[in-house]
Amino acid sequence: MTADEVDALIMALPGAEHGTAYGQPCWRIAGKFLTRLRAEDDSLALDVGSIERRDMLVEVDPGVFHITDHYRPYAYALIRIETVDPYWLKAELASRWRKVAPAKLKKAHPELAEAGGARP
Question: Bridge partners of 17?
């Protein structure tokens, strides 16, 4: 995927907006942090739910997933956009959307708010 394709995928989520986090460009959902693209390695920093899951992803597919010391204490995986499966990323972003979207936004988009929403 390219940065433009990732942007289009994220901006298609209800409530998505461009923002900044720690002085870096990011995407937010109704003001809440969703993810950011690390310019230094074209990787998305995305919360994948747990450190254990993050470590499993890195171990199973190091060509897509990696980690730096900065992110080690957090449940964030660094995802190389060039090699990530777009369907996996779409589903993962939908999962993260469900965690950060406010109740009002979820109510307005029940097709995405349900656990199976936006999966291929």
Answer: 28
Closest CA to 14 of 103, 120, 79: 103
The residue type of 66 is H
| Phi and psi at residue 76, to the nearest 5° | -95, 135
Residue of 50, 48, 52 lying closest to 79 (CA atoms): 48
Structure tokens at 76: 């964030």
Q: Is the dihedral of CA 50, 51, 52, 57 positive or negative?
A: positive
**Residue 15 tokens, joined:** 């409530």
pTM of the shown model: 0.89
Question: Tens digits of per-residue pLDDT, 26-48?
Answer: 999 999 999 999 989 999 999 99
| Residues 110, 32 contacting (CB under 8 angstroms) | no
Cα distance between residue 87 and residue 48, in whole Å: 15
Nearest to 27 by CA among 87, 111, 82, 101: 101
Give the separation between CA 100 and CA 120, rounded to whole angstroms: 21
